Fold this sequence. Notes:
- Helices cover 27% and strands 41% of the residues.
- By secondary structure, the protein is an alpha+beta fold.
- The chain is globular and about 40 Å long.
- The mean pLDDT is 97.
- The protein has a single domain (2-130), classed as Alpha-D-Glucose-1,6-Bisphosphate, Chain A, domain 4 (2-Layer Sandwich).
- The protein has three helices and seven strands; from the N terminus they run E-H-H-E-E-E-E-E-E-H.
- The N and C termini lie far apart (37 Å).
- InterPro entries: ASHA1/2-like_C.
- This is SRPBCC domain-containing protein.
- Pfam families: AHSA1.
- Residues 11-129 form the Activator of Hsp90 ATPase homologue 1/2-like C-terminal domain.
- It comes from Arthrospiribacter ruber.
Amino acid sequence: xxxxxxxxxxxxxxxxxxxxxxxxxxxxxxxxxxxxxxxxxxxxxxxxxxxxxxxxxxxxxxxxxxxxxxxxxxxxxxxxxxxxxxxxxxxxxxxxxxxxxxxxxxxxxxxxxxxxxxxxxxxxxxxxxxx
Length: 131
């Protein structure tokens, strides 16, 4: 199995970063405005990227201001059964967030494309939280 990993440092509190990746307001500003999300363990978040299907992510771990983990239960075939994890921590007066997208079956062009877009997601997250 393969995984994508990214780290960024944000000049904002852990709480603000956590809120940005768990609420409709935050995720619609940084990922897609077409969504249904709730910060509730077991809830299935839905994201529409205008690709002809809805990406569904089940919340499988949720630790306030520390961790958010989703398991993909419906999406592009390469995303199905993958896991997206956000680890949030304080480090040197900054918030570090480590994004890991694991359980990929192979390194494909779609994997590479998603790797790039996860970097852009974190860039938008940083801008959203700092401004």
